[in-house]
Model the fold of this input.
Amino acid sequence: MGAGHSHKLYRHARSPVHALPPHCKIAAVLCFVLTVVTTPREAVWAFGLYALLLAAVAVAARTPAGFLLRRLLIEVPFVGFALLMPFVARGERVHVLGLSLSEAGLWGAWNILAKGTLGVAASVLLASTTELRALLLGLERLRVPPLLVQIASFMIRYGDVITDEMRRMRIARESRGFTARGVRHWGVLAKSAGALFIRSYERGERVHLAMVSRGYTGAMPVIDDVTATRAQWARAAALPLAALGVCGAAWAATGTALIA
Done:
């Protein structure tokens, strides 16, 4: 993990959030997401406060709203699933705009959309303020099993390699006048997929042999020893602690409403 590797989600900037050690940010995001998940879905106002907290982090990280919103499109399939729930769920029905919808389905859809969106937004902020190499080092610092960290590292790196190999193969096909237009061209695409698998496997073998010849014994060398001060931990803990206060107030308000 000594070699640098940039990813498309990362946004270069100078900000207090970028300066925090990666393991502090990972722990803060994990605690924030767990707090959001444990919040009762009936406390709608609490999720609005969570969104304001993330907006404050985005401002501190100098992350534009457009950049964040474009990355949130990854949750579109989950949004589609959530929108179907009021129509297919059972239970008491309510009428909204002339449509008969399940009340339990509406609450379920809201629960998925609110918590899922906040979780994805927090993850996007983490990725946009932390380089990939730093994320992997942060996971090691948090005592994640080294084998899992290595698997994640190789997976991400080889994902880019395979994507680039696919691009070159597509250019080679198009330079020879091939354009897939229907089922009859599936055979050519299948052969390309097979060739891609063989090339990827052979490249993996060569890389493994090169690593072994350079002394690889199952553990990647750590060049940067990332540490964090108490002040940095305190700054990173500001987000989950504020969210925990909101969650506690939400449970208290929900309990009071149920008693009343």
Notes: Residues 170 and 192 are 9 Å apart (CA to CA). Strands lie at 93-96, 99-102.
